[in-house]
Structures are given as C-alpha cells and as structure tokens.
Amino acid sequence: MALxxxxxxxxxxxxxxxxxxxxxxxxxxxxxxxxxxxEEVRALLGDRPRRRDLLIEHLHLIQDxxxxxxxxxxxxxxxxxxxxxxxxxxxASFYAHxxxxxxxxxxxxxxxxxxxxSLSCELAGAQELKAALEEGTDPSQVRVVRAPCMGRCDxxxxxxxxxxxxxHATPQKVDAAIxxxxxHAHVPDYETLAAYAAEGGYETLKGxxxxxxxxxxxxRVLASGLRGLGGAGFPSGKKWGFVRGNPGPRYLxxxxxxxxxxxxxxxxxxxRVPHLFLEGMLIAAWAVEAERVYLYMRDEYPAVLEILRRxxxxxxxxxxxxxxxxxxxxxxxxxxxxxxxxMIESIEGKRGLPRHRPPYVAQVGIFGQPTLxxxxxxxxxxxxVCREGPEVLSGTEKxxxxxxxxxxxxxxxxxxxxxxxxxxxxxMDIIEAAGGMAEGHSFKAYQPGGPSSGLLPASMNxxxxxxxxxxxxxxxxxxxxxxxxxxxxxxxxxxxNMLRFFEDESCGQCTPCRVGCEKAVKLMEQxxxxxxxxxxxxxxxxxxxxxxxxxxxxNPIRLVMKHFPDEI
Length: 568
Fold this sequence. Notes:
This protein is α/β, with parallel strands linked by helices. 40% of the residues lie in helices and 14% in strands. It has helices at 35-45, 55-66, 71-81, 85-92, 119-123, 126-136, 171-179, 193-198, 203-211, 214-224, 236-244, 265-270, 274-287, 302-317, 340-347, 376-388, 391-394, 427-433, 491-505, 511-524, 531-544, 548-552, 555-563; strands spanning 69-70, 100-101, 111-116, 142-147, 159-161, 164-166, 250-256, 290-297, 326-330, 371-375, 397-398, 401-402, 404-411, 417-422, 443-447, 456-457, 481-486.
C-alpha cells in the first residue's frame, strides 16, 4: 500500500512510521566530544606522534598547561589518539600526579603544596609543617596535600611548591616563595658535556663502538662484582648475555624511578655528574645492540629531568647519539613503577601494574621485545669500570666484602647525605661518616635499606650492610637507604609510617597486597598489636603477592614485633 494512500476522504496515513522526534536520542551514548577542548588538545600535541605508548606524556602536557585533567580534555585526547575513553581514564586516574576532574567538579587551586611525609621527613616534623600550612593558607587558592618520598631525605622536612623543592621547609620559606612566584625547578650546577668530554669522557664508548668486544666488556663488569643497585642485586654483567641471546629488536630501559623512601643516591649523582651515567647507559646499549633507550625518570625530580633534556640534546648535536635514540619518559607519581615490569607497562603508556613472570623482561619486555633493565647508579658504575678497570670496585675490601656502596643516610645524624663507603661497612661506620648522631640523640634503631627492609635495633651494629648479609636477620640492603632513629623515636610509629606508605602505593592488582596493607595499617593503629593476626596476615602477603611490594611490606611489622616487643 502506498504511503500517501488516503482512506475515506481523510489525509495521508503514516501508519507505523514516526518522525524520529520525541523520545529518540539527540546524540550517542557516552561523553560527547567538545570541539573547543579538542582544538586545545590538538594545539598542545602539535606534531607529536599520537602513538599509544605516548599517552602518559600527552597527559602531562594537559596537566602542566591547565593544572588538571578535565573530562572534556580526556574525551578529546581519547578522540585524538583513537583510544577508548576507558583506556585514557584508567591511566589518568592511576597516577598520583594527574588531577582528574569530572563534569560538575571544582578544579584544584592553581597552587599545590606537596608535603613529604615519609619517615625522614616525619622525624623532622612534617605533620606539624603540614598543619601549619593548612592553617596559614586559603584552601581556595592553595592546596596542601601529603606526598610520598621526594628523594630529598637529607634536607628534611621537604615540600614541593609547584615544581620548586623547598629544603628544610618552614611556613616562612613557603610564604617567601609564594610571594616571589618561585614555583619552578632550580637546576643546580653540574658537569656539562663539554666539561666531561674535556676530561676524556665518551672516549671509552667511542673505542668500543669502533672495535670493542662486548663479551670482554661483560667479563670486566662481572670481575668488578657490580650488582644491580636498584635493590635486586643481580650480577649486572649476566643480564647482558641473557638479553643478547634473544633475537631483536632489543631495547634498554633505564629505571630512574627512585621511589623507595630514604633513597636519593641517583638524584645525587645525576645532579652532579650526569654524563658518567649517560656514557654507562650508552655502553650497555651498545653491548646488547639496543635499537633504542627508554630512560624512565620519576616526576618528583624536575631538575634532573631538565638536566637530562639539555644533555641528551647536546649528545644529539655532538653526533654521539642519533636523534630519538634516547627516549626520555617522565613518570607520574607511582612508586610501583620502580618494579621493572611495572615500569615497562608505564613506558608503554599503561597503568603501572607488575607483570606475572615468566616470561622475564630479558625475553619479553618493552613492546614484547627483549629488554635490558638497569638502575641509574648501576650504569654510573658501568662507565667507571670500563674507564678505570674492575679494581675501581673490586679493589676495596672490608669485613670480607668487596666493593663500594652509595649509602643514602638520613634521620638522626649530624650530616645526612650520600656517603660512598666500602660495601662491608656497618651501621656504626655509616653513622661515623655522617658526623655521628645529631646533638642530643642516642642511637636506637635503623632502617638499612628503605621501608622494605624494616627496622633493626642498635644492638645489631656489627653487620656489614651489603648484599646477602642481612637476609639471615629478616632484612636486606635494598637500595642502601639508611634512616637512623634515636631514643626520642618510636619504632612502632616508624613501622606504621612505612605500612601507610605501602598502603598508598599498592597498585591494587593483587588482593594479598591491596587488602593486606590496608588491614595491617588498621591493626597497627591499635594501642596493642594483635601479633598472632599480624603474623598470619604477613605470611599471606609474603607468599601470595605478585611483586616485591607486597612480599616485603610485612618486614617492618615482623621486625618490630621481634626486636621492640615492649612498644606494642
């Protein structure tokens, strides 16, 4: 029957056909694309590639420009990168340094003060500082938030005003910085490429590239006794053979996410002699025939990031590396990305969730390819070993241990800082190197290698702080982050500080760590600890967590119960 057929003299009949008006949707489901926000995002990205692995870098561009990530900008970024909104949102909301603002929510103030509340800063009065700042500032103009370790434990308490770190912070210093609009990173004096090259820098790399034998260099590194200085302690040279034995393309990933509270040795070296590290990095890349180097640096080090940007550009201009060979990536505030597989996930533009192993990253790493992973300080020593010979490390011996260690020392000592000492040094040697105990303080306890290593009592003062020496005592050296406590401090409170850090920084992927850290904090907040329940919880976390965070988090609990029972 024709649509315009009439009946009984009446007008046209539409029958079941409708006009489409009324209850029909005016737009598809989901967040709609805002053209203005899209233009802003496109202008920010410019001619940068829209690759999936650059998602975090692009989120940084928006956060830096607008001070937050609005729903409209996230939707526009998803459109521009041809990603789902869910993919963009899950990454943006995972990292602490991204401020996601949904529709109808008020963006954070333009000024943010991050007060470090990790153990060294806590001992130096971080909570009192935070309370004073909250009372003395207008919350509509200035946001004051707690933050995990910023890698400046030697100048505690520390805060970050914008990107300006204020050491030995006081409300008066903050007021002066705000008045002067001093919110940018301060780049210290450091050894530039010209100065480094004038002292023979990069001659070793040049010689190896012209006719070096990678296996000979690997043997030299092994002979030095160099082990992974990010905390794992795996013999550094052995990694090269594992990666080289897999078909390419191969990559080198540099772990600069120095997030273990109490650790600041990598920052110390990078702010002074960055090219020792960079030459070591390029030697390692040459040894495994890496097609690209991914240099992952924590966002809490804005001055280091600026130094690396300048000096990588100088290396490219000098023809030492080709443009783009070193890909500098910026973290976004996630301690878990110090775990090598979580770092690789972050380099790929994803949430920093540790991978299940096997396969190991030497076989299946960045983009599924064989990847060599090294810590910053490890590569610093690779350059020195190649330039000066294995004896630069193996030639030092103390208490039956060979080598040197960069101890990051903070807490109740007279001169906190990085102290380069023989690897066999005891806590008493380290305190002596740091000028002794602070005035009016008596030695009570120490953290030998970050919160993951727990607390040991002053009576255990004759143990060499090196790889393999602390495991029999339920601890380990880790990144050699030594925090010294005195008779004025509570071991119980220190352990609670460490577990709160782990609770905040758990990636949430596995239940034993995610729930275990939360339950441990609640139990530790009680006046009297339920030791039986805490031990059961610790055992579950150690044996069932996916990565080292959950496996090591119970160490502070167990060691305080063992050595400081009178406090709990």
